[in-house]
């Protein structure tokens, strides 16, 4: 029996979300042309979806405050809404530029999101142990995803060039 307060379903779904990152990054490096290029495009698309999703978590977590009077907290009243949209806009721009540069932008955005979120998730969790367990999972997911995006960009820029 695990001491992790995060539901096994959430853990499985979270870690399963790494499968496309890992698989597509490997295909970028190992697959023959044109599969490697299609894999890079697919990785960029998946990276954009996940980057957007991570921003949208703030909207989802803050929806219970919608329509209530101001709580007098700048994060909950304003910044969470703004921050929740920014990653999607960055990811959308990253999809429209040279793929390896876009991959690096999304990897950087995931890391920046994680750094901001480690200080803002406390607003959404009533239990510190659950927040800490979620951040442990989040850290692992973020670093693996960012590594895969970065690795694919390096392969395209320097190994396949």
Helix-strand layout with pairing:
Blueprint: H1 8-16, H2 18-30, H3 35-62, H4 74-94, H5 99-120, H6 128-159
Helix pairs in contact: 2-3, 2-6, 3-4, 3-5, 3-6, 4-5, 5-6
Structure commentary:
- The protein is built from six helices and no strands.
- The protein has 161 residues and is mostly helical.
- It has helices spanning 8-16, 18-30, 35-62, 74-94, 99-120, 128-159.
- It is globular.
- It starts with 7 loop residues before the first helix and ends with a helix.
- The longest helix has 32 residues, at 128-159.
- α2 runs antiparallel to α3 (35-62) and α3 packs antiparallel against α4 (74-94).
Mean pLDDT: 94
Helical residue percent band: over 70%
> Any idea what the radius of gyration is?
17 Å
Which class best fits the helix and strand makeup? mainly alpha
Give the terminus-to-terminus CA distance: 49 Å
What's the short version?
With about 160 residues, the protein is an all-alpha fold. Helix content is about 80%, strand content about 0%.
Offer a few descriptive terms.
about 160 residues; mainly alpha
């Amino acid at each position: 029996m695990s001491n992790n307060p995060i539901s096994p379903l959430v853990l499985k779904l979270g870690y399963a979300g790494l499968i496309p990152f890992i698989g597509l990054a490997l295909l970028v490096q190992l697959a023959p042309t044109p599969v490697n290029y299609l894999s890079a495009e697919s990785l960029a698309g998946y990276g954009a979806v996940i980057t957007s999703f991570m921003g949208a978590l703030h909207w989802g977590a803050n929806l219970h405050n919608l329509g209530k009077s101001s709580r007098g907290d700048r994060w909950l009243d304003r910044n969470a809404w703004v921050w929740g949209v920014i990653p999607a806009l960055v990811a959308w721009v990253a999809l429209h530029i040279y793929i390896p540069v876009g991959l690096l932008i999304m990897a950087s955005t995931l890391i920046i999101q994680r750094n901001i979120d480690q200080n803002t998730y406390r607003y959404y969790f009533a239990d510190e142990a659950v927040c800490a367990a979620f951040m442990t999972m989040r850290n692992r997911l973020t670093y693996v995803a960012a590594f895969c995006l970065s690795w694919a960009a390096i392969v395209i820029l320097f190994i396949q060039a």
